[in-house]
Design a protein that fits this description.
The complex is a heterodimer of chains A (331) and B (545).
Chain A lengths: L1 H14 L14 H32 L16 H30 L6 E8 L2 E5 L5 E3 L1 E5 L3 E8 L4 E5 L4 E5 L5 E6 L4 E7 L12 E6 L1 H10 L6 H11 L24 E3 L5 E3 L2 H9 L22 H23 L1
Parallel strand pairs in A: 1-5, 4-10
Antiparallel strand pairs in A: 1-2, 2-3, 5-8, 6-7, 6-9, 9-10, 11-12
Helix pairs in contact in A: 1-2, 2-3, 5-7, 6-7
Chain B lengths: L2 H8 L15 H5 L4 H29 L10 H20 L2 H14 L8 H23 L13 H5 L4 H28 L12 H33 L12 H35 L6 H14 L15 H29 L8 H24 L1 H7 L3 H31 L5 H28 L13 H31 L48
The chains are: A alpha+beta (331), B mainly alpha (545).
């Protein structure tokens, strides 16, 4: 089995040099995925060729010579049966461990990731940077920096797919999903929707621009001067009158939001829930579904009054209240 | 050939009473309870559906010759792939081998006069037809554009097409599968001829038995799922649409809980056919009978535990992903065991190259490719990149078309002389097998490459760098289409003009070959007593006649 994997690796190093056999590899995980892919390809070719040549050999060697030929009986062979059950099982176990450890390593973003927000909508991608810059069907990112995308959908399920980065994740209405990548090569790469989403599914595509950090900074600041997500969120917060109940010193009819993000909140049922993005979204859209222990269930729903983009901005604002508190404690 | 069998050749088929000429007239067919006639009713209906679904595929491949789309609007293209999938999966592949060959052969192979519930069997066909009519109505009334997977909330709240008639059509047809499955299970348990113990059964029966279990356990789940979709779409009760409090991912769990085992509904009977063909054309007992038999059951059981591998990129928990990944690898092992045993069966055999055998060899090759490329998708790290691309399309076509349809055609060619009493032109049949094999690979191999390069599936238009591979695939599809038309022509021709087949033209073992061709309505004049193992080619003289 190890021999097979080694042959696979040699095959990989040859295949990797052939153009057109693989998409551009422009993220920190792409090489690892490709390595596994080419070893799998090698195993596939190896077994297909082995089985086919055995069959052809038998077909020629044991072709029917006379119409009344009666071939001898072949004895059952238990060791052989066990061998070709156990060897594939070992190969599968090896592949499983390799693929899973790779997936496991790739699944958690580094804690220092830059966060960017994505909203899928029939049939375009809305992208918002924390600095307030918004893009449609384009995503600008710096090279060499881990980037975490927090994504949701306004309507149906979409899927955010960047082949050159070997990353893909469904973008689902009503919840946040996330993916992360670290681009390794400056360039322009395809961005596809990979989950069928209706009439113009095939047009729901865009480009990812990977820039040097300096270029990225220039790009960020040269965009039309705009407010940050936190600032826009604060405006929405005040416009909707949230502040009349969520008073910062805790004297209002609703809980103070200062320092709330990242803490646990106790529900009427006694269950404790972590206050994260999903929790805040649920509290805005469907407050009655999470009645809090110490507060009456009087908050109205804001479903229909805010879109997913505004929810993300509100969340950004609530999160900023948490860090303000941490900052003031530190002083 | 012995002189005794030559006599059979000289007797014109029409002069002996058999199930085909016992009665005439439309009514004698529509009210029949003879499993053999019902098999032919199914054969005619699924062949019609196959060519309707195939027509949509041809239009799709023509459209994709140009990056901007050569033929239709994107909305129309979306309907084409949806209708292609719905018709091929639910109205051709699922019933294909069980409802035609299974219906015809299960009683004959176990030495019974009919299935346990002949009227229920006829009812199954009527239910199938009603479901098919609903679905064809959906096609005519403007089509449906959700994809055969009906993912919510697109299907429940956004699509403006005929989702309800299509879902109802599939829902109704499901009951036909459930009844057929029940009928087979009871028949195999209760109606085996004296001496025909479980381990003397032909492996085709084991495969149909395993398939029937999936029919019975799995189909109710898709029925419930589509019924919930129907309720959601009509009454907006908030099961799947998050805008009204539902969970869209719940739908995917329910859908794949049936639809992954359904893949094995399509491939297991094909594996059963393989075991019959390979033993007959190499005149050997199957190598490792019990390993082949139990691998069918293992596949049927594990198939219920792997549905989550369709959902690795939905944000499913990492640990759920690991479990579904390891289970998906496990299902590869019994499949590999089968391939090795079929290959070993050829060893020191007496191998002939008749047309059914060519289809069988095509099956082994394409199924091996399809199975091994499944490992790419069971592997979490590569699945993330390949999920939702043409790699998936290529993979499941290798299994369902390269595997299941090859096996179906091989089986039809093998038992055609028994079913009709006529021989077809063998040269044409071998030629068609070759054309299909070449056309198939040319159509679908480029799609593996497209998928790895990152082209998503279900795209009506695509970036121009993918054009070369798409044109290759379309060229292959036109060859494949011709390959499927050739058997249609010569098989229909043979029904009238083919030479009489005789009871056993291949020199095959198995009770179905001990009857005249076509068999009499009651199958056996006397119920046979079985005294030997299946495929006991070594201990008796074999004659073709």
């Amino acid at each position: 089995m190890m021999g097979l994997l080694q042959f696979g690796s040699v095959f990989f190093s040859l295949a990797i040099q052939a153009p057109q056999l693989r998409p551009e590899a422009a993220s920190s995980i792409a090489e690892g995925v490709d390595h596994l892919y080419f070893v799998l390809t090698f195993i596939t070719l190896f077994f297909t060729i082995a089985i086919f040549s055995t069959i052809f050999f038998f077909m020629v060697k044991y072709r029917r010579q006379a119409d009344n030929e009666v071939p001898p009986e072949t004895e059952e062979n238990l060791p052989l049966e066990l061998a070709w059950t156990i060897i594939p099982a070992l190969i599968c176990a090896g592949l499983f461990l390799w693929a899973s450890s790779l997936y496991f390593e790739n699944s958690r973003p580094p804690s220092a990731s830059t966060e960017i927000f994505v909203i899928g909508k029939q049939w375009m991608w809305h992208i918002q940077h924390p600095e307030g810059v918004r893009e449609i069907n384009e995503l600008h990112v710096p090279v060499g920096v881990p980037v975490k995308l927090t994504m949701t959908s306004e309507d149906v399920i979409h899927d955010f797919y960047i082949p050159a980065f070997r990353v893909k994740k469904d973008v689902i209405p009503g919840r946040y999903s996330s993916l992360w990548f670290q681009a390794t090569k400056v360039g322009t790469y395809h961005l596809f929707c990979a989950q069928y989403c209706g009439a113009d599914h095939a047009e729901m595509l865009g480009w990812v621009y990977v820039m040097s950090p300096a270029d990225y900074e220039t790009w960020l600041s040269s965009g039309t001067p705009s407010q940050t997500m936190v600032q826009i969120g604060e405006k929405t917060f005040n416009k909707l009158g949230c502040a009349s109940c969520h008073v910062s010193d805790g004297s209002g009819r609703g809980p103070s939001l200062v320092g709330l993000y990242g803490k646990e909140e106790e529900l009427k049922t006694g269950e404790k829930r972590l206050v994260d993005e999903a929790f805040i979204r649920q509290a805005i859209i469907n407050p009655n579904s999470i009645p809090l222990r110490n507060y009456p269930p009087i908050m109205p729903t804001f479903r229909g009054q805010v879109n997913e983009e505004q929810v993300l901005q509100l969340i950004a604002y609530v999160k900023s209240l948490a860090s303000e508190e941490r900052n003031s404690n530190g002083k | 050939m012995s002189t005794a069998t030559l006599d059979v050749h000289e007797v014109p088929t029409g002069s002996r009473v058999n199930y085909l000429n016992a009665q005439y007239g439309v009514k004698s067919w529509l009210l029949t309870t003879d499993h053999k006639r019902i098999a032919l009713l199914y054969l005619a209906s699924i062949t019609l559906m196959f060519f309707v679904g195939g027509f949509f595929a041809v239009l799709m491949r023509l459209h994709l010759i140009e990056p901007q789309g050569a033929l239709v609007q994107p909305e129309t293209y979306n309907k084409l792939f949806t209708m292609h999938g719905v018709i091929m999966v639910f109205f051709f592949l699922v019933p294909s081998i069980p409802a035609t060959l299974g219906n015809f052969l299960v009683p004959m192979m176990i030495g019974a006069r009919d299935l346990a519930f002949p009227k229920l069997n006829l009812l199954s066909w009527y239910i199938y037809v009603i479901g098919a009519i609903f679905t064809l109505y959906a096609v005519i009334s403007g089509g449906v554009d959700t994809g055969w997977t009906f993912y919510t909330p697109y299907s429940s709240s956004f699509s403006h097409t005929s989702v309800v008639p299509t879902a109802l059509g599939v829902f109704i047809t499901g009951f036909s599968s459930i009844l057929t499955g029940l009928n087979f299970v009871v028949t195999v348990h209760k109606m085996r001829a004296p001496g025909l113990t479980w381990f003397r059964l032909p492996l085709f029966i084991w495969a149909i038995y395993a398939t029937s279990i999936i029919f019975i356990l799995g189909t109710p789940v898709i029925a419930i799922t589509l019924f919930l979709l129907f309720l959601e779409r009509v009454l907006h009760i908030g099961i799947f649409d998050p805008a009204i409090g539902g969970d869209p991912i719940l739908f995917q769990h329910l859908f794949w809980f049936y639809s992954h085992p359904a893949v094995y509904i399509m491939i297991l009977p094909g594996m059963g056919v393989m075991s019959e063909l390979i033993t007959c054309f190499s005149r050997k007992r199957i190598f490792g009978y019990s390993f082949v038999a139990f691998s069918s059951l293992a596949i049927a059981i594990i198939s219920f535990l792997v549905w989550g591998h369709h959902m690795f990129v939905t944000g499913q928990s990492i640990y759920a992903g690991l479990i579904f990944s390891v289970l998906s690898f496990m299902v590869a092992i019994p499949s590999a065991v089968k391939v090795f045993n079929w290959t070993a069966t050829l060893y020191k055999g007496s191998i002939s190259y008749d047309a059914p055998m060519l289809y069988a060899l095509g099956f082994i090759g394409l199924f091996t490719m399809g199975g091994l490329t499944g490992l790419f998708l069971a592997s979490l790290a590569t699945d993330v990149h390949l999920n939702g691309t043409y790699f998936i399309v290529a993979h499941f076509h290798y299994i369902m078309v390269g595997g299941a349809v090859m096996a179906y055609l091989g089986g039809i060619h093998f038992w055609w002389p028994k079913i009709t009493g006529r021989l077809y032109p063998d040269g044409w049949a071998r030629f068609a097998a070759l054309i299909i094999f070449v056309g198939f690979n040319l159509t679908f191999f480029p799609q593996f490459m497209l998928g790895y390069l990152g082209m998503p599936r279900r795209y009506a238009v695509y970036p121009s760098e993918f054009q070369v591979l798409n044109v290759m695939s379309s060229a292959g599809a036109s060859i494949l289409g011709i390959g499927y038309l050739i058997p249609l022509i010569y098989l229909i021709w043979s029904m009238r003009y083919g030479p009489a087949a005789g009871p056993n033209p291949w020199g095959a073992k198995g009770l179905e070959w001990t009857t005249p061709s076509p068999p009499p309505t009651e199958n056996f004049e006397e119920i046979p007593v079985v005294t030997e193992e299946a495929y006991d080619y070594a201990h008796s003289t074999v004659t073709r006649g």
